[in-house]
Amino acid sequence: xxxxxxxxxxxxxxxxxxxxxxxxxxxxxxxxxxxxxxxxxxxxxxxxxxxxxxxxxxxxxxxxxxxxxxxxxxxxxxxxxxxxxxxxxxxxxxxxxxxxxxxxxxxxxxxxxxxxxxxxxxxxxxxxxxxxxxxxxxxxxxxxxxxxxxxxxxxxxxxxxxxxxxxxxxxxxxxxxxxxxxxxxxxxxxxxxxx
Length: 195
Prior knowledge:
The protein contains 5 helices and 8 strands. By secondary structure, it is an alpha+beta fold. About 15% of the residues are buried.
């Protein structure tokens, strides 16, 4: 029968021979600490510079052309909104504010024209409105039918005029998130002076 001392001696010999055969060293707590410290510094540095870079990027506003112009008391810019930009806006989520289907928008020098079919109708209508600046935002005023003969058809639906004006103005104001001081219309484009 083996005694406890003999067992201990045999175990020490067994493990000692294993340690001699195994030349690899294991990872110590110090090296683990150094690895974690390096990883922490790298992630902190990348996060800091990544956030700094994000803050310097200016958000794009569709395909608007921004032309800088200095005024005496404030910095103004001219922004062009193209007809296609407004068309995509009213075809998207903003379009639900406008009670027309098959909407088409046109920008002309005499006003913004919106064509479409009122819900529940087969008649295609064309509305024209004049963009104005109120409280540093675009509003559409003087909304009227292009063809006066169609006016009798719409007389029971006066809400269509106001909803069209609000919907199109909302599309413009969501496209341009600046304070607007002036608006000018050209063929297929609207030029806004913003600051």
